[in-house]
Design a protein that fits this description.
about 160 residues, mainly alpha
Length: about 160
């Protein structure tokens, strides 16, 4: 499995931001810009919390197994692979969504936030960008936790449960 690079995520964020800014500018010239949903930062924050909880749980289980604690539960290699794939997919989607809301937020800030609804939309967009960054950070942490140590091949998974 290939490691997710931060350059890809930043590029996706910037491309989506530029396209969203241009789209928001065009849409606003024809009529009313659609609003940023209040649920956007909440959903992204929940995804970040799930990724972080998975990373901390996996890390503690691996540490307990390495220390050979008697009550240590095994870590299924397939479960960790699924967790990493979920984290990578979440990071890619979060970078895209954060870029979209970031572009809309920049448009709202540049066009003026004197009107209360536009100010609220800019706040929701900014919170969505922050929550998207939290998803990316949690996904990168999860990927780091689940990474095999250097020099180990596929037949020898330290910390992994044997069938």
């Amino acid at each position: 499995m290939k490691q997710l690079h931060i350059k890809v995520l930043v590029g996706l964020f910037l491309a989506a931001g530029v396209l969203a800014w241009g789209g928001a500018r065009l849409w606003d010239s024809f009529g009313t810009l659609p609003g940023v949903p209040v649920a956007a930062p909440i959903v992204l924050a929940l995804i970040a919390a799930v990724l972080a909880a998975t990373a901390f749980s996996t890390r503690s289980r691996l540490r307990a197994q390495r220390e050979r604690r008697p009550d240590a539960k095994g870590v299924d290699p397939l479960m960790t692979a699924r967790a990493v794939v979920f984290g990578q997919a979440s990071a890619l989607v979060a970078a895209l969504v954060a870029g979209l809301y970031g572009g809309v937020g920049v448009f709202l800030l540049v066009s003026g936030i004197e009107v209360a609804p536009r100010r609220d939309q800019a706040i929701y967009a900014g919170l969505s960008v922050l929550a998207g960054a939290a998803v990316v950070a949690a996904a990168m942490f999860l990927e780091r936790v689940c990474k095999l140590p250097e020099g180990e091949d596929d037949d020898d998974h330290r910390g992994a449960e044997r069938p």
